[in-house]
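TASK: fixed-backbone design
INPUT:
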């Protein structure tokens, strides 16, 4: 008797599995009967996709059904097709679709990629998100499809993150940027990005924690690694600890270095920007809003220059400087060595032109990067030989005897990537201090200021 090959039309099998799951639910206990339909759909589709990928003829099945011999791309396509069908139509983007997709992919990771000699590596797909900087190469795409850029990042072991730019923004064709580390994200309505992240079931990575938190009841490791992605580049690795081990809730540990892995029950760990090939796509959570500052004041005599805008991305220059008066003295001025600083530049339509963070940390002579402070603890300077988020120098000087709440600041960079729409001037700049507890706001609009565009540069004062 010959074995029956896997079907070449998965929608019929998915429908059958969904029917079985729904009938099982009907006869189940009352507690089981209240499960969401999306959980049933996601489980049925996930088991179907995992079965196909675990079969002896999975390469033939993937090639015939999804026109690929790449196991990860095949898994992605199977889960996405099933999610579309279960959610009720082509192009559905509602919560049911995302729930089905997430559950399917988790089951594929658990059942189809288990025991293959290493961790699974996921790559996020971040719509309306740019991750400028840290590029090691870029190229035009023949087709306007972000997944072509994503796939190229998967192929190249050096690639840790990627950004896809729509046609018409940097030339007539779409453009792909590949990055060897993970830059910070910022909103952009014509750019799509992604980050590689490993998932290591049964592994712990102890040490180098910069914070930890209890997770809401029912949270999975996916929630922990999504937090780590949102805090990149500071967060470089994470460990999820199951409920009942370090307390009644699951716990998430976020790390600013990559500790060595070790086998540990009840743990799942991972590395952000993991430069491995095998992956499964997981949609990221929506980025959260900027924290509301405790105090935001106007900047005196602000100056902003963006230069070299017609040059290759990664060589644009930025200068932002000014002074602000918070009108109250500090017993201890906010120390950027503890919390870092952040600058944000928006155009008149609210689109993000720049969003760059300088991390906390003392100066490291070996890397020539970090913060220095004077003896009085009132003047701080930062530099980075390699550059971070396009920035390489910054200075903050707090107060005087007559006005201890006054700050003078300067931020400079020569490795940026800034997309400025001349029709959306003037710009607006903000400096965030003490973890966004304080902000200095520079509005360059009339009557007190203006921005001029010369094609290669934008100057505001």
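OUTPUT:
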């Amino acid at each position: 008797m010959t074995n029956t090959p896997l079907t070449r039309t998965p929608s019929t099998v998915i429908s059958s599995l969904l029917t079985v799951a729904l009938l099982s639910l009907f006869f189940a206990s009352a507690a089981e009967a209240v499960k969401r339909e999306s959980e049933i759909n996601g489980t049925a589709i996930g088991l179907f996709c995992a079965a196909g990928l675990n079969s002896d003829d999975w390469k033939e099945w993937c090639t015939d059904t999804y026109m690929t011999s790449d196991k990860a791309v095949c898994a992605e396509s199977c889960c996405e097709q099933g999610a579309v069908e279960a959610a009720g139509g082509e192009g559905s983007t509602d919560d049911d679709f995302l729930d089905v997709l997430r559950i399917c992919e988790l089951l594929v990771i658990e059942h189809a990629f288990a025991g293959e000699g290493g961790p699974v590596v996921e790559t996020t797909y971040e719509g309306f998100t740019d991750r400028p900087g840290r590029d090691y190469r870029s190229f035009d795409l023949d087709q306007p499809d972000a997944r072509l850029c994503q796939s190229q990042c998967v192929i190249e072991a050096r690639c840790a993150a990627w950004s896809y730019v729509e046609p018409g923004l940097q030339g007539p064709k779409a453009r792909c940027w590949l990055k060897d580390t993970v830059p910070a994200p910022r909103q952009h309505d014509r750019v799509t990005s992604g980050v590689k992240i490993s998932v290591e079931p049964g592994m712990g990575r102890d040490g180098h924690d910069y914070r930890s938190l209890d997770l809401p009841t029912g949270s999975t490791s996916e929630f922990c690694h999504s937090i780590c992605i949102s805090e990149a580049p500071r967060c470089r690795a994470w460990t999820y600890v199951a409920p009942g081990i370090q307390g009644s809730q699951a716990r998430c540990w976020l790390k600013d270095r990559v500790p060595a892995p070790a086998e540990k029950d009840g743990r799942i760990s991972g590395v952000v920007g993991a430069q491995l090939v095998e992956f499964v796509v997981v949609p990221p959570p929506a980025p959260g809003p900027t924290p509301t500052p405790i105090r935001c004041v106007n900047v005196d005599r602000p100056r902003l220059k963006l230069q070299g805008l017609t040059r290759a991305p990664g060589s644009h220059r930025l200068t932002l400087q000014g002074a602000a008066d918070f009108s109250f003295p500090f017993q201890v001025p906010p120390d950027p060595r503890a919390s870092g600083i952040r600058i944000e530049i928006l155009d008149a339509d609210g689109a993000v032109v720049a969003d760059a963070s300088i991390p906390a940390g003392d100066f490291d002579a070996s890397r020539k990067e970090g913060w220095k402070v004077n003896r009085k603890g009132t003047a701080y300077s930062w530099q980075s030989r390699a550059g971070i988020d396009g920035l390489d120098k910054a200075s903050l000087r707090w107060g005087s005897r007559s006005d201890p709440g006054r700050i003078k600041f300067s931020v400079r960079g020569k490795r940026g990537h800034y997309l400025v729409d001349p029709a959306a001037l003037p710009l607006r700049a903000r400096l965030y201090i003490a973890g966004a507890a304080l902000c200095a706001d520079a509005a360059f609009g009339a009557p007190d200021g203006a921005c001029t565009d010369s094609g290669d540069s934008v100057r505001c004062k």
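COMMENT: Residues 295-460 form one domain.
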